[in-house]
Amino acid sequence: MWDGLVGVVKGTYTAGLGEETVPRPVIMPLVRGELVGLIWVRPLRVGQDALAGIAELANIAAAASADEVVLAWETHDVATACELPIVGPAPCLNMVLATRDGHMLHQFPYSEQLLSRGPEGWASVAPDWRPALAPQPGGELVPPIQAAVDFSFTSIELNHPDPFGVAVVLMEEDGYRVSLTEAFAR
User: Fold this and answer.
1) Regarding beta strands 123-129 and 26-31, do their DSSP bridges make them parallel or antiparallel, or are they unpaired?
2) CA-wise closest residue to 151 among 39, 71, 59
3) Which residue from 50, 87, 98, 114 has the least number of CB within 10 angstroms?
4) Taking a C-beta distance cutoff of 8 angstroms, is the pair 5, 70 a contact?
5) What distance lies between CA 176 and its chain's CA centroid?
6) What's the rounded Cα separation, in Å, for the pair 135 and 133?
7) Hey, CA dihedral for 159, 163, 168, 169, is it positive or negative?
8) The model's pTM
9) Average pLDDT per 10 consecutive residues for the chain, totaling 186 residues
10) How many C-beta neighbours within 10 Å does residue 169 have?
11) How do 26-31 and 37-40 pair as beta strands?
12) Quick one: which of 22, 23, 20, 21 has its CA closest to 38?
């Protein structure tokens, strides 16, 4: 499953960079080894809104009672949005696999090869994937990602017969892009 998720995320980042955009941070909750879906962060404003928006990715994982989560983000993108110092290699796709008991940080550095430049100055690039760094048990996570990991395993108390469905609707209304697998789609 892990290799498949890495492949999907790398493919998404490659396609996004080719279209002049860095894909937003994404969370992939798993319940008993089954993927719930992919949830991309909503449009963010720089600063506190970005910190909160990324941490709130945890809401669906918590509502689904996920026992594992995978989060993916780009180093420079999250540091810039959250007004944080860059920690670790950049540019770099980061993925963390987390459970209640801890997490493993995986980093996939890349260099950017310019494909074209649009009339507005935006660049279309292709990542040249470098060798992955060694997985880091308990590796340092930037604050909003650490918060998303922590909150993913916190029970959500909603007075509703379908708290997961409510969480999905509320997040979609807030602008999160939610793509559930067939088993979890409602």
Assistant:
1) unpaired
2) 59
3) 114
4) yes
5) 12
6) 6
7) negative
8) 0.92
9) 91 85 92 95 96 96 96 95 93 97 97 81 84 97 97 86 88 95 79
10) 13
11) antiparallel
12) 23
In whole angstroms, give the CA distance from residue 178 to residue 165: 12
What is the pLDDT, as a whole number, of residue 16? 85
The CB density around residue 91, as the number of other CB atoms within 10 Å, is 20
Q: Which residue has the tokens 């909503």?
A: 42
SS3 assignment for the chain: CHHHHHHHHHHHHHHHHHCCCCCCCEEEEEECCEECEEEECCCCCCCHHHHHHHHCCHHHHHHCCCCEEEEEEEHHHHHHHHCCCCCCCCCEEEEEEEECCEEEEEEEEEEEEEEEECCCCCEEEEEEECCCCCCEECCCCCHHHHHHHHHHCCCCCCCCCCHHHHHHHHHHHCCCEEEECCCCCC
Provide the greatest CA pair distance for the chain. 52
Q: Please, what sign has the CA dihedral across residues 54, 70, 28, 8?
A: positive
Asked whether the beta carbons of 148 and 72 are under 8 A apart, the reply is no
